[in-house]
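Reviewers asked in the last cycle whether our approach scales beyond single polypeptides. To address this, we selected a multi-component target totalling 226 residues and predicted its structure end to end. The input consisted of the following lines:
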Amino acid sequence: ILNVEQSPQSLHVQEGDSTNFTCSFPSSNFYALHWYRWETAKSPEALFVMTLNGDEKKKGRISATLNTKEGYSYLYIKGSQPEDSATYLCAAQGGGADGLTFGKGTHLIIQP
Amino acid sequence: DTEVTQTPKHLVMGMTNKKSLKCEQHMGHRAMYWYKQKAKKPPELMFVYSYEKLSINESVPSRFSPECPNSSLLNLHLHALQPEDSALYLCASSSHPGTSYEQYFGPGTRLTVT
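The resulting structure, written as structure tokens, was:
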């Protein structure tokens, strides 16, 4: 069982500001790192899947980086909007494993 | 259609009841998953089906019995549950088992055991 940690647990950000948060995971036996966005009463929505050290992915104002050697990933949101308010989950996938081990998430609230 | 559907949305059952949760996807995915999420905790993997065969059981009690009748459908049969089994049950699917393809999640079934 992998130990996946996310920080901070919650975050209040002013609309228009940029923000970032962290996911750490065991660097040994790493296979993939997944980021999800989860709004209340909806399905978790996949944002990124990253596998390679140094990988950087972008979707609109959201981007993510991956460091597999030290076992961390950052998620960045540029110019936060109220619709960005959600819980952001990261999940690690170990080598040979099919299921995901999730962190507890970062609860992001964008204040107008 | 990139949707995973789950029924029912909410379920209340007594400890002696038998009920089933249903999950369906029509994306041609060959891996399907059950996760359990208790309040203020992350989702935890319960079962994985690869090509309609059970490939992972994360030491889940036998009062939870999964079934994959075909490649589009995944059931979770519940019997003699305990109040501590109350949780959100999430189903997910991905295109190929054992790969890093993203998992698509349903909205979950909120289960309350009384």
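The radius of gyration of chain A is 13 Å. We regard this as preliminary and will revisit it once experimental data from Aim 1 are available.
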